[in-house]
Amino acid sequence: xSVITYREALNRALDEELxxxxxxxxxxxxxxxxxxxxxxxxxxxxKYGARRVVDTPITxxxxxxxxxxxxxxxxxxxxxxxxxxxxxxxxxxxxxxAAKLRSMSGGQFKVPIVFRGPNGPAEYLGAQHSQALASYxxxxxxxxVVAPATPADAYGLLKSAIRDxxxxxxxxxxxxxxxxxxxxxxxYLTPIGKADLKRLGTDVSIITFGKPLKMVLEAADALAxxxxxxEVLDLRxxxxxxxxxxxxxxxxxxRVVVVDESWPVASVGSHVAHLAARDAFDRLDAxxxxxxxxxxxxxxxHGLELAAQPSVAKIVxxxxxxxxxxx
Amino acid sequence: MxxxxxxxPSAQAxxxxxxxxxGLGKAELLELLRRMQLIRxxxxxxxxxxxxxxxxxxxxxxxGQEAVGVGAISALDLSTDYVLTGYRDHGHALACGMDPKAIxxxxxxxxxxxxxxxxxxxxxxxxxxxxxxxxGIVGAQIPVATGVAFAQAYRGRAAGEGAKPTGAxxxxxxxxxxxxxxxxxxxxxxxxxxxPAVYVVENNQWGMGTSWKRVSSLEEFHRxxxxxxxxxxxxxxxxxxxxxxxxxxxRKRALDEGIPTLIEAETxxxxxxxxxxxxxxRSREEVDEYRSRDPIVVLKDRMAExxxxxxxxxxxxxxxxxxLVDESVAFAEAGAEPAPGALYxxxxxxxxxx
Lengths: 327, 354
Ligand SMILES: Cc1ncc(C[n+]2csc(CCOP(=O)(O)OP(=O)(O)O)c2C)c(N)n1
Hints:
heterodimer, A: alpha/beta, Rossmann fold, seven-stranded mixed sheet, B: alpha/beta, five-stranded parallel sheet, binds thiamine diphosphate
């Protein structure tokens, strides 16, 4: 077991998969000579050379689509988007090509490609650079979408994504790159589609994915201090969702808070809330709560920016509402 | 079909008449020099304020590129023309005459900022001065600028097919942005519809840590104009008068003939890509080489040679612009934070409160 950062965990996964399989290559803006805009690919150019670790011009649509074509004929591209905000330029190639080729070809083609990069707000970056876009990808049949919240899952899910025979979108987070956590030294894969019960509890279930997990665990501590036992479910994969795990925890506690940093309308969080309501209806003691990002473009001002995002206080307040506790 | 003319105007300004340079008199030249110095001083201070954490996030400084923004915008008539740019926008905003106080307050995220603290460094706008931003998505301003030019042609043609557009649109972007599909799509649109657009690629040699040469199929960006039957011109971006001259010609061509132009301005950014860039990819010597062709010094020396600026006048400019920047910092400091309710403001024409 080693304690490493989320960034190092991703780097280790890339390093091992590049070493294991020559059909794997990494491509994106600043991934090679600059060692990655966020240093996730540090040292990989030096180790694997410019055939395997490829710097691109700023052409998101072009190099994303190029990856799809390379995957159709047997390569396993890892396409780095400098951030998911810029992946909006590549939406067509992901949604109309990568996600649909298997189906449109009647199963003749597979597209084993990984699209990865930081998603969601960081700090002081304003409206165009602070978007949590999970639902853009999660909406699309044919894609898989993972959202690791810890270094151990960053490593295990990225390795699974690279070996998967379908297109997988990885939602990383700029703020999480420097988070540390224990990662086993031996090689392992984290299964796609499997949630992780982070904390057992009896009074309320808090369900989340990706970066907000840290905040949710802090909220669970705060709730424990006031005598509330919160169960915490980390979805880890947002497509396909682990519906059984959602059902189980919702039925167990009868009170559900879903936390998703995206906008509230048509989000992964709102869908999870729907699943919990549908599958635990007869056991629920309160309406399902959704703690989301505010329904606004992200403002630059830091106070407003913080107010626009989920917080420990908002999660605690939602749990109290679900428990009909005075706040 | 489209004409393939690709004239290369001389990089030199027309022969100086006595008391004039590049067709400009002393007062005008002093004002151009002053605008460049105001940008330099503003950016230095913005860098300091970033260090003091008064400014956060991405902050891209324009030092070294002043001649491009000031020279190009000085060739416009902002009562009818428009300007758009990317995220390295402080210089263009100031060159359009935007209030440095409102800009600094915006960088501080204050309610008194130009976007009420919601935009930040990358998103400066000034509707009155026809400055349409301030865009954080590399290349995104290029189709938008093309649309502004479309509106100018559209309004003009209301007077009859072939009538002149109501103005021209100037669009700035970097050497990194030029490979985006949006650029290539826009040029074609501008040409087929004869839009009054002037595209200026500020080739400052680096797109983040990537040398422009490593990611471009052509070493002369202005030749990309050939693919679209437009006029392509290259110009020394460290020479304000040269930039002004080619932009003035391009603007005239846009207005009179409906032929868009792609201008490649060779320039350099002195600072890192943003405040968090350690700049390991380039050498000190390279930076120094460009600093030796500093656009402010180049213009000032030429003016001094022609007897158009005395040392005391230059010192007065430095003093005045520094004071204005001091005032801007004080204004930004004193400004109030946006009210919490501002979160839901300015999202729709009619406010939808949650
Ligand atoms: C679509 C998109 N992709 C990537 C980025 C990240 N990014 C910001 S600036 C930049 C480099 C742009 O360089 P250039 O166009 O040369 O402009 P300069 O910074 O030199 O002014 C990159 C890759 C972005 N903001 N938008």
